Amino acid sequence: MSDTPAPADAPEPTEEDIFEQKAVRLAKRERLIADREDAAGGAYPVSLPITDTIPALRERYADLEAGEETGVTAAVAGRVVFSRNTGKLCFATLQSGDGSRIQAMVSLAAVGEESLAQWKEIVDLGDHVYVSGEVISSRRGELSIMVAEWKVAAKAILPLPNMYGELSEESRVRSRYLDLIVRDQARQTVRARAKVNASLRQTFADRGYIEVETPMLQVQHGGASARPFITHSNAFDTDLYLRIAPELFLKRAVVGGLERVFEINRNFRNEGADSTHSPEFAMLESYEAYSDYNGIADLTQDLVQNAALAVAGSTTVTWADGTEYDLGGRWDRLSMYDSLSAAAGVEVTPQTSLEDLRSLAASAGVEEPPLATHGKLVEELWEHFVKGGLVRPTFVMDFPVDTSPLVREHRSIAGVVEKWDLYVRGFELATGYSELVDPVIQRERFTEQAKLAARGDLEAMRIDEEFLRALEHGMPPSGGLGMGIDRLLMAVTGLGIRETILFPLVK
Fold it and tell me: What is the mean pLDDT of residues 101-107?
């Protein structure tokens, strides 16, 4: 049997080492088949008479003193992550899926000579093993099972990575299953994500929202300015788009009378990938009739703070690097144009000409975006002058009208729309709107977007006649929210986006 795992600084096994280990382990699998009474059943049992879980035993017997016996028999299964053979007594550490561990003690006196010899010969690090026996505390105070019966539940044909070393980020992402076995943080992140999603759903339920589902395959992409993935349906003999946002369908639901709706969904955008962007990502979108972007900002603050409480027990979260970040209190609300003017030392308004904006960009060394418009350049300048100085969670309010075709014009400021972006940790976490519900103005906005598309803007929206037809049946004034679930995990845990996604897309 494999002995104690290698030290943290041990060199990685070569391909030749892995090939040799695989051959040895495959031979042990053949031995398991030969030893089974029903060889047709394969190498491993179909099911096992498990009575307890490792975390449940650890909780139940947390106060067991060293050397104490319980007289209670338990049957558990786990992955072997540590082993030591010492003649008449073998020790193995079994790990459950949540990382909880228990020691298995296989002794000559309890299982007999033949069973002990089989354990030493067949069981390797990484194997899933079933053990049954009395729950005790070892002389060193380690919660243990004194094994009376054992079986290999599944054999690891390939060896585990060094349990005491560090997987590279690339290895963690490409082989997340190994990351989950080896690293506590990986398991904690998965559970944090589940807690976040449960918290989001509970907050919405408390506010009377209904969770719905909308199509991922769409005949017309829309709901955001993004470049879509395109696929083809053989059944309909037509090109389809992978969803870039659920917005236009969720608004149809509001038209239909579902006045408070939300969806946690997968979106796909055929764009760059970096520390805050993934081509496939999880998105929360919600719409509330008779609300506006101020009410949606209040909702968003509650959603994020409740999620932090669910994961960390506090609105002050501790990131993976040990840094504390305060998500509590009432968050600041900052005007995009006013904050840009203050930071640049030049007044910038919705009426500032494109030429003046280009001059400011050139003097500040800001690269002009392709097919620049007033709004695109204002947002580039704002990111250059203001974004880096945001520390606390901040709602950046009132965006240029030409970059926000689905948003209602501001009720008192000409040239801007009632939209905010929420910045946390220096990145955009969420966006909120007072929704544009007038189909006449919406058609005008779509027409302007179509002109940009004709000029080569791959992110511009197209005219969506079906959506306009829905609006023509009357949509109540509404507030809308879009928030990245992966980014919410980043805000709570301090991790990069590839760490918050269980199986991220990699090249």
Answer: 97
Q: Find the DSSP H helices in 87-168.
A: 108-111, 113-122
Q: DSSP code of 109?
A: H
Q: Which two tokens stand for residue 95?
A: 């790990």
Q: What is the pLDDT of residues 240-283, one digit of tens each?
A: 999 999 999 999 999 999 999 999 999 999 987 777 788 899 99
Could you give the angle at the alpha carbon of 157 between the alpha carbons of 152 and 163, nearest 5°?
90
Per-residue pLDDT at 7: 54
Cβ-count burial 106-129 (b if 16+ within 10 Å, e if not): bbeebbeeebbebbeebbbbbbbb
Q: Let me know the angle formed at the C-alpha of 353 by 348 and 356, rounded to the nearest 5 degrees.
A: 70
Which residues are paired to 267 by β-bridges?
Answer: 281
In this structure, what token pair is assigned to residue 181?
């076995």
C-alpha closest to that of 481 among 283, 331, 310, 316: 283
Question: HSE (CB half, 13 Å, CA atoms) of 206?
Answer: 10
CB 225 within 8 A of CB 403: yes
d(CA 162, CA 165): 5
Judge whether 421 is annotated as a binding position: yes
Asked whether the predicted pLDDT for residue 70 surpasses 90, the reply is: yes
Give the integer Cα–Cα distance in Å for 385 and 456: 28
- Residue 2 confidence (pLDDT) above 50: no
Q: Is 428 annotated as a binding residue?
A: yes
Contact 133, 74 (CB under 8 A): yes
CA quadruple 303, 307, 310, 312: dihedral sign: negative
- Both tokens of 187, joined, read 């398991």
Q: Degrees (nearest 5) of the Cα angle 280, 286, 287?
A: 140
Coil, helix or strand at residue 436: coil
CA distance 251 to 435: 9
**Token pair listed for 472:** 């023509």
Cβ contacts of 15 within 8 Å, gap of 6 or more: none
Report whether 102 contacts 93 (CB < 8 A).
yes
Q: Taking 80 as the threshold, does the pLDDT of residue 8 lie above it?
A: no
- As a whole number of angstroms, the distance between CA 228 and CA 461 comes to 10
Q: With contact defined as beta carbons under 8 Å apart, do 431 and 422 qualify?
A: yes
Residues 253 and 258: their CA atoms lie apart, in Å, by 6
Query: In angstroms, how far is CA 494 from the centroid of its own chain?
Result: 12
**Cα-trace Rg, the chain:** 29
